[in-house]
Amino acid sequence: MPNQSSPLDQVFQALADPTRRAVVERLTCGPATTTELAQPFSMALPSFAQHMGMLERCGLVRSHKTGRIRTYHLVPRRLKAAEQWMSRQRALWEQRLDQLDAFLLSQKENPS
């Protein structure tokens, strides 16, 4: 069955893992090679490469290879889509809480 999840689902799935979040944070400082990115983690390079593959498939990072060195760059556009989704959800819940607050205040002022 082909992966039919939306790009936003893929971004959240990628960010659900602490290793991948740490890589995204590191890449906010600038491009880095696979070796540089893998250094803080105690895992085999093939396992780390799977994390990078997932980040690349969901569009959070891009890479280019020069000789034997692969360098990764952050693609902030995908993060922006996730941020916009979360902002819409926050606004919705703030509106609902404001309505609940107004209702409870009206009940307190006019008890039946």
Automatic annotation (TrEMBL):
Output the InterPro entries linked to this UniProt entry. Answer: ArsR-like_HTH, HTH_ArsR_DNA-bd_dom, WH-like_DNA-bd_sf, WH_DNA-bd_sf
HTH arsR-type domain sequence ranges: 1-94
Cited Pfam families = HTH_20 (PF12840)
PROSITE patterns for this protein: HTH_ARSR_2
CDD domains in alphabetical order: HTH_ARSR (cd00090)
What the entry lists under NCBIfam families is as follows: HTH_metalloreg
The protein's name is Metalloregulator ArsR/SmtB family transcription factor
Give the lineage: Bacteria, Pseudomonadati, Pseudomonadota, Gammaproteobacteria, Lysobacterales
